[in-house]
Amino acid sequence: MASPAKPAPPSGAALAEAALDPDQQDRVSNAINQLTPEEAQIFLDVLEHALEKRRIQMWGYITAGVTLIIGMLGVLVYWGNAPEGAFVGWAVGIPFLLVGIIFWSFGRWSNRVAKRALTPGAAAFKAGAKALPASSPKPTAKG
After folding, report:
1. What is the pLDDT of residues 80-112, one digit of tens each?
2. 128 by DSSP, 3-state: which?
3. Contact partners, residue 51, CB within 8 Å, separation at least 6
4. DSSP class of residue 76?
């Protein structure tokens, strides 16, 4: 009988997402305090990219919601002013089409921002590398 495989260590992107969880702030702050300045800067770079991606997505949702509300009000006005017997059902689909375009474009934009060039250490961290690229060794406590 085979033993269960160990789960893979989380990637840097997953760790940055965990840092955004309010329930884990104490644990993350303790872990950040134990990092070297170079490692902390790499973590900060990955975290800033994750926050910027979320900010863009949030504005996409807000824009889509406002567009849907205004669009449906416009459809209601158009439908009410249309001559009797005229087919205006096509107008209901227009706001949803606009919302789909908004979601698609904001999603592409946020993915492009998330893939923007990171420092080599941050790119390795985000990919889940166990060690940082060649840098100065960690100082050790002498005592």
Report:
1. 999 999 999 999 999 999 999 999 999 999 998
2. coil
3. 20
4. H
